[in-house]
Amino acid sequence: MKAGKPFIGQDSAWEEWLAAISSERMHHAWLLTGAKGLGKRAFARAAAGELVREPGGKLPDADAHPDIHILEHLPSNDDEAKKKAEGKPYQTKRNITIDQIRQMQQRLTTRPTLGERRAIIINPADDLEKSAVNALLKSLEEPPVGTYFLLVAHQPGRLLPTVRSRCRILRFAPLTPEELDAVIRRDVPQANAEERQAAILASHGSPGVALNFVEQDLGNIHQLMMRILREGDADFHLRGALAEEMGARPLRERQLAALELARAVLANELSTGPRDRQLRIIDAHGTLTRLSTQAPTYNFDAGLLIMEIGGLLASAAMPREAAR
Fold first, then answer.
1. What is the pTM of this model?
2. Alpha carbon distance 115, 23 (integer Å)
3. Whole-angstrom Cα distance, residue 107 to residue 101?
4. Is domain 11-171 in CATH 3.50.50.60, yes or no?
5. Please, which residues have CB within 8 angstroms of residue 114's CB and are 6 or more apart in sequence?
6. For the segment 89-131, what is each residue's pLDDT rounded down to a tens digit?
7. How far apart, in whole angstroms, are the C-alpha atoms of residue 68 and residue 301?
């Protein structure tokens, strides 16, 4: 980790952001793009803190600073809001709503509270309601002086071209094995060397996947996923084993972690095998991506979900003759 950088990895993106802050003509809207789990959320918070930091002052807490406004998925109802307030896992709404955008825009009618700059983080921007995107576009077209937007996007193609064209793109790259190891050591210090190595190999550069791998104990699930990809699963035996390993009543966090692991496994397979297999991998990955966006808010049956994951992996399995 470089001195002064409050997170691990993404050195080039951070240097680009710092250079922009110190320039005389900083762009007013930034699109943070890259695969889910690369640390865009942590980067956006640190970047916003650096933007509003007082000269000589400490990096502020983005969640508590009056000039940093964060728009994310709200709890789905009052009961879920209580869970959030208590620090418990909670279900969220499917989208970031137009009401959230309008509330943010009302704040933009006043000057920043403490300094000359204000940051608006939207995470993820690709989950904005259609009407919310149209409302946001007005602010991007005529931004108030001193206001800067940080739009996190896992799938920037889902945003309107008119939104993308008004943003400067900041791309996020997979972390190196050394950086991943540092992330795991920092966040899961109890993980041993074998667990860290397995997580690094399975994550393919994603710190989010690596941490989930260790925290949710996904080693056996990863092995079964790889077997399905290598051998297929014509008799559903491996899918049954996958469901058994997942458990009858897994926590939602474990289900989400398994989804992200399956996506990482498929992404790593894209460069192998014949063209028809690559197309099957792309189709399966697209379906997993859709499921991963729905799973936080939908009440999927855990058993059916893991069987669906196994079926998608089986659909992208190596041809038998190649597997031999």
1. 0.83
2. 17
3. 10
4. no
5. 52, 54, 65, 66, 67
6. 788 888 999 999 999 999 999 999 999 999 999 999 999 999 9
7. 38
